[in-house]
Specification:
Low-confidence stretches of chain B: none
Order of helices and strands of chain B: EEEEEEEEEEE
Distance between the termini of chain A: 38 Å
Radius of gyration of chain B: 13 Å
Order of helices and strands of chain A: EEEEEEEEEEE
Shape of chain B: globular
Shape of chain A: globular
Number of helices of chain A: 0
Number of helices of chain B: 0
Largest sheet of chain A: 6 strands, mixed
Radius of gyration of chain A: 13 Å
Mean pLDDT of chain B: 95
Helix content of chain B: under 10%
Strand content of chain B: over 45%
Oligomer: heterodimer
Structural class of chain A: mainly beta
Helix content of chain A: under 10%
Low-confidence stretches of chain A: none
Largest interface: A-B, 24 and 24 residues
Strand content of chain A: over 45%
Structural class of chain B: mainly beta
Number of strands of chain A: 11
Mean pLDDT of chain A: 95
Largest sheet of chain B: 7 strands, mixed
């Protein structure tokens, strides 16, 4: 059972544009929703995270929007740069530190 | 502060063999989790250890096992390797009471 559905699988954006990645979850026990960025040959790096009692969190060019009633959350990357080209994963955390990940979105920022 | 380290970084094994992977968490982190990453299944949770005790386990067969030592370092073992075990195995550590998990670079296991 895929508990976190992520879309799109890939996206191409021009430099300076906005990248938007969406995730939907099923498990209402999730109490923490992180986003990870992964470059080829590297492990995932924690980018930004949100708790379900907050509707939005912004850190620099990265913003998470969270809709608890719809069980959806999204990542917005403002002013996208070529260095942002990577694969992004959303996740939900339930019991302990168990993370359930979405399928990933490959982002390509064209100069 | 040094990040999560994993050894070895690359490994090639033959079907039927067993393998042990090692993870050293960030200093002060006592919780260690393991994940398997494959192109087909994505990132999947294997297990989590805290204070040398397994706190959580994912849906993997008993061939996958792990342990944690008193210094918080962790190892995972896969016995009777199958071709489908080829994957990037990732270790993540976190502080007790913190939800933030930090991943290592992974061990790339290839089973032939």
């Amino acid at each position: 059972q895929q508990q976190v559905k992520q879309s799109p699988q890939s996206l191409i954006v021009q430099k300076g544009g906005i990248s938007i990645i969406n995730c939907a979850y099923e498990n209402t026990a999730f109490d923490y929703f992180p986003w990870y960025q992964q470059f080829p040959g590297k492990g995932p790096a924690l980018l930004i995270a949100i708790r379900p009692d907050v509707s939005e969190k912004k850190e620099g060019r990265f913003t998470i929007s969270f809709n608890k009633s719809a069980k959806q959350f999204s990542l917005h990357i403002m002013d996208s740069q070529p260095g942002d080209s990577a694969t992004y994963f959303c996740a939900g955390k339930a019991a302990g530190n168990k993370l359930t990940f979405g399928g990933g979105t490959r982002v390509l920022v064209k100069p | 502060k040094a990040g999560v380290t994993q050894t070895p970084r690359y490994l090639i094994k033959t079907r039927g063999q067993q393998v042990t992977l090692s993870c050293s968490p960030i200093s002060g982190h006592r919780s260690v989790s393991w994940y398997q990453q494959t192109p087909g299944q994505g990132l999947q949770f294997l297990f989590e250890y805290f204070s040398e005790t397994q706190r959580n386990k994912g849906n993997f067969p008993g061939r996958f096992s792990g342990r944690q030592f008193s210094n918080s370092r962790s190892e995972m073992n896969v016995s009777t390797l199958e071709l489908g075990d080829s994957a990037l195995y990732l270790c993540a550590s976190s502080l007790i009471g913190s939800y933030e998990q930090y991943f290592g670079p992974g061990t790339r296991l290839t089973v032939t």
